[in-house]
Amino acid sequence: MEEIIQLLVSGLAYGSIYALVALGFVLIYNAVGVVNFAQGEFVMVPSYIAVVFLNFWGLPFILAYLGTILVACLFGLLFQQVAYYPLRHRTYLPVIISTIGASIFLQNAALVVFGAEPKKPESIFRPGDTFEISGIFIVPQYVLILVVTLLLVAFQYYLFERTKLGKQLQATAQDKTTAQLMGIQVNHMIIFTFMYSAVLGAVAGILVSPLLLVSKTMGGGLALKAFSATIIGGFGSVPGAILGGLFLGIAEKMAARYISSAYEQAFAFIILIVVLLIKPEGLFGEKISEKA
Amino acid sequence: MLKLEGIAANYGKVQALRSVSLEVETGQIVTIIGANGAGKTTTFKTISGLVRPVAGRLEFEGHNLANLAPEKIVELGIIHVPEGRRLFPGLSVLDNLLLGATSRHKKNQKWRAEAAEDLEKVYKIFPALKLLAKRLSWTLSGGEQQMCAIGRGLMARPRLLMLDEPSLGLAPVLVQEVFRTIVEINRQGMTVLLNEQNARQALAIASRGYVLETGTMVLSGEARGLLNNEQIKRAYLGSAMKIKDPDLAEVVENSTRKIPTPGE
Amino acid sequence: MNRKIIYAGLAVLIAAILLAMPNLLDTSSLNTLNVGMVFALPVLGLYFILGLTGQMSLAQAAFWGIGAYTSALLTVNWDWSPWLGIIAAFFVAAFFGVLLGIPTLRLKGHYLAMATIGFGIIVGLVLLQWDTLTRGTDGISIPAYFRIGDFAFDKIEKYYYLLLAVLLTLAVAAWRVRFSRIGRGLLAIRENEMAAESMGINTTLYKVMAFSLGAGYAGVGGALFAHLPNTRYISPDTFSFDQSVVFLAMLVLGGSGTIFGAVLGAVFLQFLPEWLRFLDKGYLAVYGAGIMLIMVFLPVGVVGLIEQLLKPWLPRPAQLVAPASLLSKVGQPQSGESGQGSREAAAGQIVLEVRNLQKYFGGLKALDGISFKVVKSEIHALIGPNGSGKTTALNVISGIYRPTRGDVLFNGQAVGGKPPHRLTRSGLARTFQNIRLFPELSALENVMVGQHVQSRSNLLGAILPLPQSQAEERRIQQEAVAALEFVGLLDKQSELAKNLSYGEQRRVEIARALAAKPFLLLMDEPAAGMNPHETETLMDLLVKLRDQGLTILLIEHDMNLVMSLSNRITVLNFGKEIADGYPSEIERNPAVIEAYLGAEVVSA
Predict the structure, then answer these.
(1) Residues in chain B within 8 Å Cβ distance of A184
(2) Are residues B145 and B91 in the same domain?
(3) Which residues of A touch C129 (CB under 8 A)?
(4) CATH of the domain at A190
(5) Residue B31, domain CATH
(6) Per-residue pLDDT of chain B (264 residues; tens, 9 = 90+)
(7) pLDDT of residue B142
(8) How many CB atoms within 10 Å of residue A257?
(9) A286 part of a folded domain
(10) Which domain does B103 fall in, by range?
């Protein structure tokens, strides 16, 4: 029993990270209709920035994290302008290739600047720390991940459902042409989406880097899992991305413990293929009628 | 108010508009009729800035629209209600309506109060929308969607309302309803530019009509005149049905300038 | 004449350069070239999947790895000759292609991409973890060389010629597939899947075929990679997802529509980082930035750029083919593959019968029990207001929708629920309300796709120059030209469909349907968007077709056309049939007038 709870907590923690990255995917996909192959770099770049602020400059946590999020905003803007904007009138393929190019560029730029050795960021909790509640050992970093993710999801819900900006973002995602006809500045909405997606990546990076360490390849694996999560949850759906991420995190930990740890990295994709074959619209996907 | 002169526009490599000229005066209902693919929707898209004209002049109240972004054109007071309603499916009716007021956020601090006011006006025209306000818009029926789309357009407080095929895909009873509403909105002072496949009905409520054929305006005039125009009459079922002498071969022979009835 | 000499000279020059390459390049460049040529094979495979068929695959590196391991294990563990290894690699990879393709190809776009990514990662993990077979992270060293008698391909200079031979052979094969019945079928799927299905193409089968062919090519590339004489070593990390992404980038950068682009893209992208090596540590970053820049500034790909530069020098489009005098046959269906016995139908025979047909979409009753009969060699019109269910009826009859209830009988046989491609085989063809041409194919090729059910060359026939398949290809082309002439578009045959005017596109669509030599032609608003002159031409055409014995069921709003051409009219309203009879009866029917006009007209 204790073991199951521990697995559940670690599964939820990793699942939260997948969910954050998955949200970044879905928001960009909904806004511009293209899967961003550099989504992993939306995690990797801010993670390195955090390392610079914390380890090199020795900033206090609060400042370093806020600074990282600010830089992530700029990064999202820059990425949109360079990798997407010039190709916005073309089909999806050139955009995909462009994001692939951006990903190769960013990974190798990180290699040039920071070297091949993975970096261990300063963190609030030491990764090895645990505390015990009635026989269950809990890693505080996991709790932090869960709390922050919950807050961020709540914030996002407020932003999208309760604000004018949120409605305009949703309108843009649902029908760009009509959004233009309503006078919505579609291009600004797209820029904002990229920036927000980068913030999600930054938060995921800050939360996960004490566990995974910061390296040029840290984002790629996360992004693939997150992409699976979006499809498992129901592609294009925001709640689907969150639930899919959490589900994937838990399933992965359980399967690694009870089936085979050697294939831990494969379970995400086995689950994915099974879901695609049985319920292609995703486990939590809602179908918006074709009537619309 | 609105003036198009010799507008040409391309859709991909195909020339969709060759030469379109038309004029809309304040307070009028003006209708464009023509077949599928004749260029009606492209004309609308050119006016609202979604398609760039390659030749010709495009003016609205003295402003040159030719190179303005769609949102700037909305700010000038032109609202294009697109074909097929195009509501934002995942948003509620209320959100859809409020998004219609987007263009007024920037300039106006009091937009919230004004929007609430306008919302009441829209509910007055379409009482059903008030009851549906919380529903996601994709769950609405075709007629309700069309009301919501027109209402959303009105929320921008436009000076020119462009309606693209508002009766498309609606049951005849609802078509009547839509046309009645258009007349009502016009009576309240709104200028309306109407793309319609239901030409008979459109000409009945319009003051001027333009006939578009393969990207060119081929005929224009007083709506009533067009309604009684033999060439146009023949091209429509309503008239064809009433031809007592069904020597249709001859009719076909003579109808070199006939206007084909648009499709679904 | 002069041009011919120039081309011949150019060909000799290119051949000479290709043959002299090992002497022209230093060792490291030649090595890069070899690897580039190896990579060109999985990229060519991707050309079948993405370039021709329009399906996304990010599993090419996995198939490539399957090929490499197949050949390596067979030669190392069982002492097979590498020649057999390469053949086995093709078939094993192609088999896995089928295995992945059958369940996943009904997925589209990003779903398919993700399923293929998942497959690729699982294959990579199996290669890594199943170490009793694959030796895990240690990888496999392969001692065997390719040999012909005593001659061993043991140096990269020699291996270059082997690669050149294999690559040229497979590129030519790919080229032959592209310009065959099969290739047109694949392109049709890319361009418009529903129309492809309606032309009688078994789209599922064709997609699986493209997938397995692409996997097979990757497998051959894998085998050649395993036996590269200077390394002869493989390990699982080579066959990663990242490599699949690189293959995709190679295809798109080269110019994804062309075979030459696939090969050039692979070689170019292999050389690009080598050229950037002088940048030291940062060369891969610059390479990534370069990919982005190429996408932005070179939308047509490397091949597109070369084409534009060479345009003045390229041969003009081939002489237009003269039409065969087959006009009289249009509309008189020959027996196709189905061997329908009842085609010699007598006048007055019922070709199509619809019995109490119902089609519900959720709660919406699009068709609520309609029945009518279409008589041979007649024009039968289906009319009614918008939303009355006309197009739904046509879609059910042509197999796009399954009926909720009721029967569709075609020549007396129940066909309700059969897939469209089967119906086309038994003699039914159609046009669409919103024209569904294959926009990136020429008018001629569009019509040639229409001949799909009238021809039978298979993949082997496409690749090998068999006299039989070549004769068939000639026949397809001549008849397509004839069909284009029939609709008056002979001079537009090499124009891309998307560049034709609305009316011309309609006529190409009709020609394409006629090319299938149908027994019954379904037309959804053929006159929509035509100007009066075009409509008249269309009417003449329809009469001509009927006179030749073709049966036509059409939906149309142009009442002049309907009333003057139809032998019989069925009127629908709200999914129900409200009238059925001769035109003279219909135009006096009060229910019909009511349905069309509504009760009153609102006036200002």
Answers:
(1) 71, 99, 102
(2) yes
(3) 262-263
(4) 1.10.3470
(5) 3.40.50.300
(6) 999 999 999 876 677 898 899 999 999 999 998 876 778 889 999 999 999 999 999 999 989 998 899 999 999 999 999 988 899 988 999 999 999 988 876 666 777 788 889 999 999 999 989 999 999 988 888 788 999 999 999 999 999 999 998 887 676 677 888 899 999 999 999 999 999 877 778 888 999 999 888 788 888 889 888 888 877 766 654 433 333 333 333 333 333 333 333 333
(7) 79
(8) 16
(9) no
(10) 86-157
Domains of chain A: total: 1
Residues of chain C with C-beta less than 8 angstroms from the C-beta of B213: 531
* Ordered alpha helix ranges (H), C201-258: 203-226, 241-255
Cβ neighbourhood burial of A261 (10 Å; 0-12, 13-18, 19+):
exposed
How many residues in total does chain A contain? 292
B201 and B149 housed in the same domain: no
Helix, strand, coil share of chain B (percent; to 5): 40, 25, 35
* Count of structural domains, chain B: 2
Cross-chain CB nearest to A292 (options B95, B100, B138): B138
Does A170 contact B100 at a Cβ distance shorter than 8 Å? no
Does a structural domain hold residue A285? Answer: no
Query: Same structural domain for residues B23 and B93?
Result: no
Please answer whether residues A69 and A84 qualify as being in contact, where contact means their C-beta atoms are separated by less than 8 angstroms.
no
Residues within 8 A of A (CB atoms), C 274-303 only: 281-292, 294-296, 299
β-pair type (C576-581, B55-60)? unpaired
ipTM beyond cut 0.90:
no
Mutual orientation of helices A186-212 and A41-51 as an angle, nearest 10°?
A: 60
Of C535, C583, C584, nearest to B260 by CB-CB distance is C535
Residue C285 to residue B163: CA distance in whole angstroms: 51
Instruction: List the one residue out of C332, C401, C340, C338 whose CA is nearest residue C366.
Output: C401
Strands C140-141 and B78-81: unpaired
Query: Is there a single domain that holds both residue B126 and residue B33?
Result: no
Which residue ranges form the domains of chain C, and what is each CATH number? Answer: 32-241 (no CATH), 348-427+518-598 (3.40.50.300), 439-516 (no CATH)
Determine, yes or no, domain membership for B249: no
One domain, residues B95 and B219: no
- pLDDT higher than 70, residue C155: yes
Distances (CA, A) of B105 to A183, A189, B23: 10, 15, 30
| CA–CA gap between residue C366 and residue C369 (Å, rounded) | 10
Encoded amino acid at C143, one letter? P
Does one domain contain both B90 and B147?
Answer: yes
Model pLDDT, residue B260: 35
B11 with B32, same domain: the answer is yes
Residues of A in contact with C118 (CB under 8 A): 228, 268-270, 272-273, 276
**Helix orientation angle between C156-178 and C203-226, rounded to the nearest 10 degrees:** 170
Locate the chain C residue with the closest alpha carbon to A88.
Answer: C296
